[in-house]
Design goal:
Length: 304
C-alpha cells in the first residue's frame, strides 16, 4: 500500500508548473508555494510576535531570538525555586496557522503561548517523539555558548552543510535533545529509535507533482520534520518505483523535499535554479547543496 497522499494542485499552481515546462525554471512555483500564510509571511515574522507576547508575561524572565535561525528563540520562565530555559521553534505553529481561518489564529497563538509558559519541559526524555531531523550545520552555533557539561545538543554529521539533529517532535514545537537527557543511550541506539518514529509518519507523507519527473514531498500537518524523511529507508523504497534510475534531492527549505528524476536531461540545472531562487527570496533556509543517495548514504552531488 502506498503511503503517499498525492494532492491536487490549485489551477494557479498548475499554470505556474506549465510555465516551468516552457522556461526550465522553478522560480514561479517557489514564489507561489508559500504565499498562503494567513497572517505571518514567514517564521521570522511569527517569532517576532511570539517574543513580543512572551516578554509581556510576568511568568517569562526573558525571550531572546536566535541570531542564526529565524524560527528559533530561547525562553526563560520563572519557576518556584528555579528558572527554566526552553529552546522554542515556531515552524510547526506557522504550519498550523496557515491552515486555520483568520478568526481562529488568535486563539491558536494564545494556546501555544499558554502551553509554553505553564508546561514543565524538564520532565524527562520522550522516546516516543524522538526524531532525527536534518538541519543546517550553523544551527549548532546557537548551542556553543554557555553550555554546561553534558548539556550540549545531540547531533551527528551528515553531508555538506547539514547535520542530523536529534529533536523531540512535540505538538507545540521542536526541542533539541541534550545528550545528558538520553538515558545513557548511544548514538546508534538513538538513531534506531528516531528512525522508527519517523517511519510512523509515512501515512502523512504528501506528494505534489509539479511536472513530469519533479515532485515536492512534505509530512502533512508536521512539515518541520519533512527533511527527516531522507534518513529512513522506507521513504527511499517508496521513491524507487517512480524513479527507477534514481533522483536528485534539493532541500533549500526546512519544511519540504524537492525530488528530481535523474532521467531528466537537465535535472541538475533545475535543482540549482530552484535552490538559487529560494536562497535569494525565501526564509527558513536549510541547504544550498544538491544531494543524492549512494551506498545508502546521503551525499553531495559534484556539479560541473
Amino acid at each position: 500500500m502506498s503511503y503517499f497522499k498525492i494532492s491536487r494542485l490549485s489551477k494557479h499552481l498548475w499554470a505556474v508548473a506549465r510555465g516551468v515546462l516552457a522556461s526550465v525554471s522553478l522560480s514561479g512555483f517557489v514564489a507561489t508555494a508559500h504565499s498562503d500564510t494567513l497572517r505571518f509571511k514567514d517564521t521570522a515574522a511569527l517569532r517576532l510576535e511570539v517574543i513580543s507576547r512572551l516578554r509581556s508575561d510576568s511568568r517569562v524572565k526573558e525571550a531572546i531570538p536566535d541570531p542564526v535561525d529565524l524560527a528559533r528563540l530561547s525562553v526563560t520562565t520563572v519557576r518556584p525555586g528555579k528558572d527554566q530555559k526552553l529552546e522554542i521553534d515556531v515552524t510547526n505553529l506557522l504550519g498550523r496557522l496557515r491552515e486555520l481561518p483568520a478568526n481562529e489564529v488568535e486563539t491558536e497563538i494564545h494556546r501555544f503561548l499558554n502551553v509554553l509558559v505553564l508546561t514543565d519541559t524538564e520532565s524527562g526524555f520522550d522516546a516516543d517523539h524522538l526524531i532525527a531531523n536534518i538541519r543546517p550545520r550553523e544551527h549548532l552555533d546557537a548551542f556553543k555558548d554557555d553550555v554546561a557539561p553534558g548539556k550540549g545538543t545531540t547531533y551527528e554529521d551528515l553531508a555538506g552543510d547539514v547535520v542530523i539533529l536529534y529533536q523531540i517532535d512535540a505538538e507545540e514545537s521542536l526541542a533539541s535533545v541534550p545528550f545528558s537527557d538520553v538515558g545513557g543511550r548511544s548514538l546508534p541506539q538513538l538513531r534506531q529509535l528516531a528512525l522508527e518514529n519517523i517511519d510512523k509518519q509515512m501515512p502523512q507523507v504528501r506528494q505534489e507533482k509539479i511536472r513530469d519527473g519533479i515532485s515536492l514531498f512534505t509530512v502533512e500537518g508536521d512539515e518541520a520534520i519533512s527533511p527527516a524523511l531522507l534518513l529512513t529507508d522506507k521513504f527511499w523504497a517508496l521513491l524507487e518505483p517512480q524513479f527507477p534510475d534514481g533522483v536528485l534531492i534539493a532541500i533549500p527549505r526546512r519544511d519540504s523535499i524537492f525530488v528530481f528524476d535523474k532521467r531528466l536531461p537537465n535535472s541538475v540545472q533545475l535543482a540549482r535554479t530552484l535552490i538559487t531562487r529560494v536562497f535569494r527570496d525565501e526564509p527558513d533556509l536549510l541547504s544550498e547543496n544538491i544531494f543524492e543517495r549512494r551506498d545508502g548514504k546521503l551525499q553531495v552531488v559534484a556539479e560541473q
